[in-house]
Amino acid sequence: MSVKDLLKMSLSSLWRRKLRTILTVLGVVIGTASIVVMISLGLGLNKVSMEQIEQYGGLTTINVYSNDGGYGYYGGGVAVSVDGSDSDSDSQEPVRIDDAAIEQFKHMEHVEVASPILSTWVLLRQGVWESSASIRGMSHEALEKMDIDIKEGSLPEEGGELQFFYGNTVITDFYNSKTGQNPYYENYDYEHPENNTTADVDFMNTPMFVIFDTDAYYNSQYGGTDENGAPVPAPKKYMVPGCGLMAGSPEEWGENSNSILCDVEALKAQLKKVFKGKAIPGQPTNKSGKPYKEIYYNQAYIRVDDMDYVTDVQDQIRALGFQAESNVEWMNQVQEQSRSIQMALGGIGAVSFFVAAIGIANTMMMSIYERTKEIGVMKVLGCDMGAIRNMFLAEAGFIGLIGGAVGLLLSYGISSIINFVTKATYESGISYIPFYLVLLAMIFAVFMGMLAGLFPALRAMRLSALAAIRNE
Amino acid sequence: MVQEREPVIQVKNLYKIYRVGRNKVRALNGVDLEIYRGEFCSIVGTSGSGKSTMLNMLAGLEKPTKGEVIISGEHLERMNENQLVRFRREHVGFIFQSFNLLGTMNAKENVALPLTFRGVPKKVRMDKADKMLDLVGLRKHKTHKPNEMSGGQQQRVGVARALVVDPEIIFADEPTGNLDSNTSAEVMELMKKIVREQNQTLVMVTHDNHLASFADRIFHIIDGKIVKIEDNRKNREVVEA
After folding, report:
1. 3-state SS of chain A?
2. Neighbours of B51 (CB within 10 A)
């Protein structure tokens, strides 16, 4: 018996009992839709979290810190004392990030970019507008490879004079020094963020005055005195040209969007010039409180060529005594979480699919009772036992196929309704049906249909031809 | 004397014993017979004589308790169910008492059904079914469903379905049991005519002596034993048990 004839006979016997077929299919439709929608929610949640992780620096980035835990990223000059000897490690010289360490990182396998990060807090001024901002010196190579979208100008030049490249949300930190008001946050409009006003600062064409020695500045502002009791003179202001702007509106938060980037060598040279003979704030000091000759970095930025190797590289760096953090741990956590959510949601859907499968089995059983005689006649006329089994399996498979297809359409409908309703909270949609889920759902529906039909089909195959034709 | 001496069916010492509660019922109690190619044979007996069991054995629908059934040189008693199905598909045509046409198919599709099981392409099997329906005189009813036809017409479709595979043997189980006497006679004449024309072997089971007399040879069966074989062609009794 040819496959075509077999499928045709299966379809025609389904068609013969339309209402019953439709009801059975309906069960599969609901089962498929509930599984698919539930899983799509799990996948959507996962996608939302992954996008979030992507915004916070991607999955191939490792941030390295020195292990003295104290003089930190923000370098506010608050070095936690290392001479308190509550444990052995404290008495050891901390491992700090210097050029040699960066070289070491660079030569590790799978490391694509390794750059120092030297950050320092400065005060920016332009007219009445003032802002306390962190500037971040990185190697030219790293800046180029970070895939920064440039709106205007260019990335800071390598070497030479200090130049600033402004992130797109930096503007939101400027306040009016006379009134103390920040125009961005004062009038923040949640409903229409496009109406927000920002400080009237021109990064590109008007010079920006930068005060590096912020301690001295505040002391002089508020009448502080030095060790000798003399009033602190106002520190020198430096004019730093802007070289470029990052693309994006002030609302778009992302990696580096709130940073002012510059070339690390230029920043080092500038700091040495500004703090000639004095300790640079945020730099570590030796036990007698004197600064070291060399400028140490707060942090190192490392990018690995593939996210599979992030943990490896991280371990190597940790073995050297540094602290290393990446989003991989976060991501693993998120994925584990979303996997268990998916399991729970999928389980709920699976229950209704299971009920649908019982429905298929029931329908097929009924159909065999009704058609006992027909099966007997076919057997007497020489229809292969296998062909009879396959005919019933195909019927059950068709129920699964039709139910699965309609169920998927329904899923798309429900999914878009969910996404429409939750649009305010989840912009990119909380329910996400990828193509592979469609494919899997179809295969699953057909497979489950056939599985449910297997027992009835075997029963039909084993019917005694003689008993069947006698069944009047 | 019979013209052709080639036996197409050989039955040797055939027993079929059923257990009914504690009792053993001997449905067939040592049957021997030979049927030759091109013969029209009938097996006659009262209800419970074992005639239907006999037919079921010959068609491979039931397994004998003991003995041999050899059809076209093949031992049916040694075959498993799959082999029996294949055997029926390739060698046997079947006419039922209650027609057993599939209600969802029209006359032509019903006739073509056994060819479908053989994997014959649609066009070929429809052509053959068409010719067969012409042969049984149902030119005008080819696209009718079984419930749109009379009993006689339905049985003609049944005859066409049995003949379409060009079988070596046709079995008929009370083929006119559900028909009135006029229609019965018509169908019997039709079967006889076609068997003659196509030189086919037909084995018919019936309880009706009159219908049995259409056949070339008549086996009388009582209590699981063949008691008498009549040869109509010579019009004399050949064997008396």
Report:
1. CCHHHHHHHHHHHHHHCHHHHHHHHHHHHHHHHHHHHHHHHHHHHHHHHHHHHHHCCCCCEEEEECCCCCCCCCCCCCCCCCCCCCCHHHHCCCCCECHHHHHHHHCCCCEEEEEEEEEEEEEEEECCEEEEEEEEEECHHHHHHCCCCEEEECCCCCCCCCCEEECCCHHHHCEECCCCCCHHHHCCCCCCHHHCCCCCCCCCCCCEEEECCHHHHHHHHCCCECCCCCECCCCCCEEECEEEEECCCCCCCCCCCCCEEEEHHHHHHHHHHHCCCCCCCCCCECCCCCECCCCCECEEEEEECCHHHHHHHHHHHHHCCCEEEEHHHHHHHHHHHHHHHHHHHHHHHHHHHHHHHHHHHHHHHHHHHHCHHHHHHHHHCCCCHHHHHHHHHHHHHHHHHHHHHHHHHHHHHHHHHHHHHCCCCCCCCCCCCCHHHHHHHHHHHHHHHHHHHHHHHHHHHHCCHHHHHHCC
2. 26
d(CA A99, CA B58): 98
Q: What is the DSSP letter of B215?
A: S
Q: Where are the domains of chain B?
A: 39-60+80-235
Q: Do A384 and B161 touch (CB under 8 A)?
A: no
B39-60+80-235 topology per CATH: Rossmann fold (3.40.50)
What CA–CA distances, in Å, run from A292 to A280, A352, B183?
Answer: 10, 69, 121
Q: B164 in contact with A at a CB cutoff of 8 Å?
A: no
On whether the CB atoms of residues A326 and A63 are closer than 8 A, the answer is yes
Q: What is chain A's mean pLDDT, rounded?
A: 83
pLDDT tens, position by position, A293-339 = 778 888 888 888 887 888 888 888 888 888 888 877 778 888 888 88
Give the chain A residue nearest B83 (alpha carbons).
A384
Is residue B129 a contact partner of residue B115, using CB atoms and an 8 Å limit? yes
Could you tell me the pLDDT band of residue A68, with boundaries at 50, 70 and 90? low
Contact A239, A208 (CB under 8 A): yes
**Which chain B residue's Cα is nearest to A371?**
B102
A381:B98 CB<8 A: no
- Low-confidence residues in chain B, pLDDT < 50: 1-2, 236-237, 239-241
Per CB-CB distance under 8 Å, the chain A contacts of B118 are: 1, 382
Give per-residue pLDDT as tens, A218-246: 777 777 676 677 777 778 888 888 888 88
A chain contacts of residue B100, beta-carbon cutoff 8 Å: 373, 377, 469
What number of other Cβ atoms are within 10 A of residue A234's Cβ? 13
Please state, in angstroms and as integers, the Cα–Cα distance from residue A153 to each residue in A124, B39, B85, following that order: 20, 105, 85
Cβ proximity of B107 and B157 under 8 Å: yes
CA distance B223 to B45: 9
What is the residue-wise DSSP string for B55-96? HHHHTTSS--SEEEEEETTEEGGG--HHHHHHHHHHHEEEE-
Phi, then psi, of A288 in degrees rounded to 5: -85, 5
Q: Report how far apart, in Å, the C-alpha atoms of B224 and of each of A26, B48, B62 are.
A: 55, 9, 15
Q: Report whether A209 contacts A237 (CB < 8 A).
A: yes
Structure ipTM: 0.89
